[in-house]
Amino acid sequence: MSLSVEGADEYINRTTIDNEDWNDSDRERKQRVINVADDVLVRKFPDYKIPDDAVYEFANVLAIAYNDTNRLNKHGVASYSITGVASFNFKDTMKVDDESLIPKKTLDLIGEENGVKLGGRRIQWTVM
């Protein structure tokens, strides 16, 4: 795997619509986001080869999830306002782990690389 900020820039700008948060990030932040995306995917799918494009697809989602506004939501802030500028109210706080943010396209890219079909649903125990 040869993950790079340049590779991520090219992929994200070529294949994604909502890429402003990624493009507004400095190089060091982009590298951190790539590192986290790769780490989460490797831990989630230890038996599969993770293609660079899958990491880049997920990195863009993480850049959006950790932008300035969403980061406050992720930390449990329900609302805030900037006097005379804007007011932000979050319907629900987004206290979720990074693994739950993995998009379907990332799963599809990993599945295609490994010749398997990965689903987004998790199997969980339940008591009835």
What features would you describe in this structure?
With 128 residues, the protein is mostly helical. It has one domain (5-114). The protein has helices spanning 5-15, 20-23, 27-44, 52-65, 68-74, 104-114, and strands at residues 79-82, 86-89. Strands 1-2 form a two-stranded antiparallel sheet.
Strand content: 5-15%
Total beta-strand segments: 2
Provide a count of the helices: 6
The computed structural class is mainly alpha
Query: If you average the pLDDT, what whole number results?
Result: 85
| Helix-strand pattern | HHHHHEEH
Protein topology:
Elements: H1 5-15, H2 20-23, H3 27-44, H4 52-65, H5 68-74, E1 79-82, E2 86-89, H6 104-114
Antiparallel strand pairs: 1-2
Helix pairs in contact: 1-4, 3-4, 4-6
Tell me briefly what this model is.
This protein is 51% helix and 6% strand.
Kindly list the characteristics that best describe this protein:
about 130 residues; mainly alpha; two-stranded antiparallel ribbon; 6 helices
